[in-house]
Specification:
alpha+beta; five-stranded antiparallel beta sheet; 250 residues; Glutamine Phosphoribosylpyrophosphate, subunit 1, domain 1; homodimer; 12 strands
């Protein structure tokens, strides 16, 4: 399984991903799922992948190849992130056309989805989710985060914490806690964790981190968060079983 | 959708359920999903249902009918909760045999699952999850809670808080927070919430509560929890992007 998330605030972007891949519980591996296709000074482009590994690797390879050979259309010459999202979606469709029938015959899940975050000079920072069908949606002021993969365990903390106004440092912390919650409840999501913080209009990545399995920051955060949660839990009053039905009592 | 959970600790049981049922987003209704089949003094039996409403109602009706007509085998004469779980599973299979083919033809999800918690005199309190196929699993000292329906949003708080040694009052509070988290992330799970706390060896229900949509306790708990979480979040240190790779630093 996989868990990747992107947060798009007024101050920039945070993108984070785990690195655990499994084909059954007896075949667990580590694959990086966060890819940096930036061209510093002109554009920052980050991609996260989820789903069938052969399909996502084929998409990433195809995007890299277009860059390498200087194809007419590539990640570094498209003028907007919206067009980049369409171009990535087209790649997904091409791989589908080639492989999906065969995978379907074998009963193998051939879906994949991607997060695309970044900023191109002259544009605002943006965050897209490219679906398995090649179409995409975009994060907005009202819904500033997008997730792919095992999304549910890590969503409550995002729902409670993230708004478009959240400072980037808080968003990065929240992304790590969201991953921490997911790793606690689903062992098929695991470290190393890749986190990138991108400051609006900087057009280069200045903050990135790989948190290894026993990384001291990850351990420390997990511990402090668990303690703080326990304290928060204690602060909530016990159920009042004998309370009167009169709401004014409270 | 539905979310029900049961917690089985050394001190007794907590069972909680929401009441929202939907057939598409344009057809949302309120149905109680927690049923009390206790025979005070002899046994406490609580059932929660999740899944296809026509199937779970048919199961509950069939169980009630057996009680009413004094069937040879019924909820009040089986000697152990394990046998009650098998009996409930048999009912699920009967309804499946009758209806599943027709629902399948129409492309309707015909699965259902149930939580069964309680205590029969001479036995320990126990908690079972009866699957759609009629088989069941049981909560244990190592895994003292079971969930059905929309389980993921509410699991992190249980994972972090509940052990077999957790006091019952804390377990009840945790059940409500688990439901609160789920309702926040999935609008198809909603109040009224039914909560029951059962004290081991009391053989009767002394603590139960129905929390209506704007119940002041629910509102208060939701608010205090949100504030406490925000404080907990603030307690976690920001990411140290410049930290040395030397673990001893921490």
């Amino acid at each position: 399984m996989t868990y990747c998330l992107g947060i798009s605030t007024q101050a920039g972007l945070v993108i984070a991903a785990d690195s655990r891949t499994n084909a059954g519980v007896d075949n667990v591996s580590t694959y990086r799922k966060l890819f940096d296709f930036s061209h510093p000074g002109d554009r920052v482009l980050l991609l996260c992948t989820s789903g069938n590994l052969s399909m996502t690797q084929a998409v990433i390879n195809s995007l890299s190849k277009d860059l390498k050979v200087g194809a007419d259309v590539n990640l570094h010459n498209l003028p907007s992130l919206h067009e980049v999202a369409r171009y990535v979606g087209d790649k997904v469709r091409q791989i589908h056309d080639r492989d999906a029938e065969w995978l379907k015959k074998a009963g193998i899940d051939y879906n994949c989805s991607l997060l695309l975050g970044g900023q191109i000079r002259g544009e605002d920072p943006e965050l897209f989710l490219v679906y398995s069908e090649g179409n995409s949606i975009q994060a907005t002021v009202e819904t500033p985060f997008l997730q792919i993969g095992e999304t549910k365990y890590g969503k409550p903390i995002l729902d409670r914490t993230i708004t478009y106004e959240t400072p980037l440092e808080a968003a990065a912390k929240c992304a790590i806690l969201s991953l921490d919650s997911t790793m606690k409840s689903n062992i098929s999501v695991g470290p190393p964790i890749n986190v990138v913080l991108y400051q609006r209009d900087s057009f280069e990545i200045r903050h990135q981190l790989t948190l290894e399995p026993r990384d001291p920051y990850l351990t420390k955060v997990g511990k402090i968060w668990a303690e703080a949660l326990r304290k928060a839990f204690d602060d909530v009053p016990d159920v009042d079983w004998t309370r009167s039905p009169n709401p004014e009592q409270y």
